[in-house]
Amino acid sequence: MKPEPDLPAAPDPSDQGVPMSVKIRERLQAAKRRFNANDNIAEFIEPGELDKLLDEVTHQMQGVLDSMVIDTADDHNTRSTARRVAKMYLTEVFRGRYVAPPTITEFPNAERLNELMIVGPITVRSACSHHFCPVIGRLWIGVMPNEHTNVIGLSKYARLAEWIMGRPQIQEEAVVQLADLIQTKTKPDGLALVMEATHFCMAWRGVKDMDSKMINSVMRGVFLKDMNLRREFLSLIPQRS
Ligand SMILES: Nc1nc2c(ncn2[C@@H]2O[C@H](COP(=O)(O)OP(=O)(O)OP(=O)(O)O)[C@@H](O)[C@H]2O)c(=O)[nH]1
């Protein structure tokens, strides 16, 4: 029987020796799924395969250190750096690419709440897709519910943000991805997001500008139509530094 086009292919015994990344990539391509830096690919990784991917990235990272002419054999500080960096990418800073979304309990809006709700600032930790330099900032989310809006726990907004931001991102796409996700989960009348972040690719390297930040917003539904509501949301966000 042919596998469903959207599901990972069953393991093939003839795959022995094929790098883990190649197997995962083939499944993504067979399912015609995008695998950009800021896409989540957890659906295509089977149990135990992330450890094999970690071994592969460690090996390749060691090659990078060798090519940078760093004596990892004798330099006690860099002896395990390849493994550390691989672990940091796959299981910490870019974890949002490789793991399933956080479980979010949704409750019906029993009291038919329809007042503006704002959560923030949520700390944002990400990295730019271009240089893999940190992006550190803050995020505010405003929700205008209706009687059909699912209520989700306050902490879940931060968990969803962490999952989306834990990938190589560009800020403009990151806020849209997060807005789409919250929209799908809660189905509000309106959704507003404001993100403010420092991009280390502009501070640590490049133009070496320490003070500039990028601020962007996404407004959906009633926040687009109702200028007073938008103004109320923006005025309730504490003064940004
Ligand atoms: N629009 C946008 N740009 C970003 C973001 N994060 C980093 N960048 C920018 O992406 C650009 C990458 O551009 P390139 O010109 O290819 O890289 P580069 O030659 O190293 O550029 P410099 O940083 O100017 O040295 C830089 O201008 C970064 O500042 C982001 O979230 N959004």
Helix content: 25-40%
Radius of gyration over alpha carbons?
21 Å
- Percentage of β-strand residues: 15-25%
Given the C-alpha coordinates, what overall shape results?
globular
C-alpha end-to-end distance: 59 Å
Number of alpha- plus pi-helical segments: 9
Question: How many domains would you count in the coordinates?
Answer: 2
Q: Please name the CATH topology of the largest domain.
A: GTP Cyclohydrolase I, domain 2
Helix/strand class = alpha+beta
What's the CATH architecture name of the largest domain?
A: 2-Layer Sandwich
Q: Mean pLDDT, nearest integer?
A: 92
User: Which blocks of ≥5 consecutive residues have pLDDT under 50?
Assistant: 1-9
CATH class of the largest domain: Alpha Beta
Strand order of the largest sheet: 5-2-3-6-7
Walkthrough of the structure:
It is globular and about 60 Å long. The N and C termini lie far apart (59 Å). The chain has helices at 20-30, 49-67, 81-93, 95-98, 154-165, 171-186, 200-203, 222-225, 227-236; strands spanning 106-107, 117-128, 134-144, 151-152, 168-169, 190-199, 214-221. Residues 1-9 have low confidence and may be disordered. With 241 residues, the chain is an alpha+beta fold. The protein has two domains: 20-97, Orthogonal Bundle (GTP Cyclohydrolase I, Chain A, domain 1); 106-236, GTP cyclohydrolase I, C-terminal domain/NADPH-dependent 7-cyano-7-deazaguanine reductase, N-terminal domain (GTP Cyclohydrolase I, domain 2, 2-Layer Sandwich), CATH 3.30.1130.10. Helix 2 crosses helix 3 (81-93) and helix 5 runs antiparallel to helix 6 (171-186). The strands form two sheets. It has a five-stranded mixed sheet with strand order 5-2-3-6-7, with helices on both faces. The longest helix is centred in the N-terminal third of the chain and has 19 residues, at 49-67. The structure holds guanosine-5'-triphosphate (GTP). Residues 128, 130, 170-172, 199, 201-202, 206-207 line the site of guanosine-5'-triphosphate (GTP). Guanosine-5'-triphosphate is lined by residues 128, 130, 170-172, 199, 201-202, 206-207.
